[in-house]
Amino acid sequence: MNSAAIINIDDRAKDALSVATKLFFEGKVFIYPTDTLYGFGGNPFNEEVISRIVKVKHLNDANTFVLLVNSIEMLMRYIEIQDDRDIELFPQIWPGPISLRFRLNGHASAVMNTDKAIFRMPNHSFCKKLIDSMHLPILATGVYRSGEAPLEDYITIRQEFLGDIDALFYTEAKCYNVSSTLIDFTTPTPELLREGKVKFNDFNKIYRKFREES
């Protein structure tokens, strides 16, 4: 019998936060709602967590996994940026459904065994409280297997993935079922890697205006 916890975050928010925090630091894997998709979550600095989710999703690597942060200050603990002026850009696009790929600083690169990672600041109350509780970024990657469409309702997610996770945190509220827009911020100018909820042209308008004014 599967012993995964199933918790409604609308009715049991405190319980959900407590259980998720415990699982995070125990190196477990859970599913939770965000402002884009339901996501597999866990500690992004735990190799077993990464490997487990890669296996469940039938992927070859974790290159598109996102680290959710709750502030620019948290983000800056892990990344290097090409131009210090860009720090002023981030509040213009976050919180929201834009994910940016950055170069990691030396310490983060050594811990994560990679030189780049993707970060985003979500606009979702439960996500923000969860990150506040961890005091660390939380992993996020859509709930689907490679080559399949993302799952948008918790009932289907429960049927398909409950045996692969340690907890399912769900909401009765509508999830948007649209991925974040993924942009490479390690290149001389931002490059689109995946268009999602935000059109790349709309991001570019903000970026160009910011550059003209900075």
Written overview of the protein:
The structure is a single chain. This protein has 214 residues and is α/β, with parallel strands linked by helices. It has one domain (5-213): DHBP synthase, CATH 3.90.870. The chain has eight helices and eleven strands. It has helices spanning 13-25, 47-56, 72-76, 90-93, 106-112, 125-134, 154-161, 200-213; strands spanning 5-8, 30-33, 38-41, 66-68, 79-80, 98-104, 116-120, 138-142, 167-170, 181-184, 191-194. Strands 1, 2, 3, 4, 5, 6, 7, 8, 9, 10 and 11 form an eleven-stranded mixed β-sheet that branches. Strand 10 and strand 11 (191-194) form a beta hairpin. Helix 1 (13-25) crosses helix 6 (125-134). The longest helix is centred in the C-terminal third of the chain and has 14 residues, at 200-213. The chain is globular and about 55 Å long. The mean pLDDT is 94.
Keywords:
globular; DHBP synthase; alpha/beta; 33% helix; 11 strands; eleven-stranded mixed beta sheet; 214 residues
What would you call the shape?
A: globular
Classify the oligomer. Answer: single chain
Helix content estimate: 25-40%
Ranges where pLDDT stays below 50 over 5 or more residues in a row are: none
CATH hierarchy, class: Alpha Beta
Largest sheet descriptor? 11 strands, mixed
**How many separate helices?**
8
Could you please say which CATH topology applies here? DHBP synthase
Radius of gyration: 17 Å
Strand content: 15-25%
Question: What is the CATH superfamily label?
Answer: DHBP synthase
DSSP, total strands: 11
Structural class: alpha/beta
| Mean of pLDDT | 94
- Cα distance, first to last residue? 58 Å
